[in-house]
AAA+ ATPase domain-containing protein
Amino acid sequence: MLWVDKYRPKNLDKVLIHEQTAQNLKKLVTEQDCPHLLFYGPPGSGKKTLIMALLREMFGPSAEKVRVENKGWKVDAGTRTIEIELTTLSSTHHVELNPSDAGFQDRYIVQEIIKEMARNRPIDTKGKRGFKVLVLNEVDKLSKEAQHSLRRTMEKYSSSCRLILCCNSSSKVTEAVRSRCLNVRINAPKNEEIVKVLEFIGKKESLELPPGFAARVAAKSNRSLRRAILLFEACRVQQYPFTNSQVIPPMDWEEYVSEIASDIMKEQSPKSLFQVRGKFYELLVNCIPPEIILKRLLSELLKKLDAELKHEVCHWAAYYEHRMRLGQKAIFHLEVLRLSFVTARFAFLAFFSSYDCPKLNQFHDTSVCSQVYEHLQGFPYCNFWLKLELVFSVYWAPLWKKAIELVCFQMQQPATAEVFRHCSLCFRPFRG
């Protein structure tokens, strides 16, 4: 058994992180007035651990006796019947599922499963009809229609079931759903708290930790407790006894994304595009979320890019991340991001190849400034500020102020301090 599962707290009293939140949840159970709950926070912060500990506090050890089922539903949608199949994790008292796995049919899942739970309410030892708990993961990935449907069913069946919603970002959950839940923010643990957990695991496993070793693992975890424990176990498998010079192994998928970034920078050709597509598929097949792939790829590209291109690449990464959330096929958006990068890089190199000087830091002649200005005149849709930004990005050299003064003079604009301040704040390449 992995350490991340072996040392997961089973009840709220044994939680080492978020102790105050755990005690507040315990009070809710004691008062027997538990409302709908919305747990939100970054990945690896401990949301699922608190939810499972809360279920055990409510229903006892029977909440841990779960079974995995592939359940199917037949839903009447107007003139046709839709068949939906989804994997659920359930016990006598609760059902856990991820309705966003159903794609655009997620609203039918939300409606049907809550109706089914309402019809099959459990009876306690005193003969009273209790309530079931429905745990919905990745609520922030539900469509707007599904969230509106969730709001209606929450109101209609509030007496027979309780909902525990789990997500990374509450901003993507509609206000109507948030207002009907008790919002529980689970912050990412601090490095000191992660070190405390790692030292606890090391003591249980009878491991000797060199001074500062746990802190190094925590620093590599990006404040994700799950990742820190996995890295700690990987270090134990890789080498023991631990040493201060021991390398913390990176995640395999992160190295793979770094290879993709290197391939993109090395060659821009149809053959390279085909190879990168295969690597994107490999990551997606291994259940790496496309949003994580995109962010990691952007981070790796920014390490290798010229400063003039970074803003352009960030712009397109943000654009296609938004499009990815609206669409269904993540591979399309990852590929078009790669093509946008190639297009921007070609435009950048073609722009500089039109000048005589091979290196930007060798611009020491006003004739080059005139060339820049004449080049800008070919873009009639550029306003004055955008042209100045382009001059600033091109003329990143000891005499860049001279170039801006020349352009201001030729365009009959005053070269004031505001102009230079604007250029320094808006440093970015031209988007033609």
About this structure: Residues 330-353 form the longest helix (24 residues).
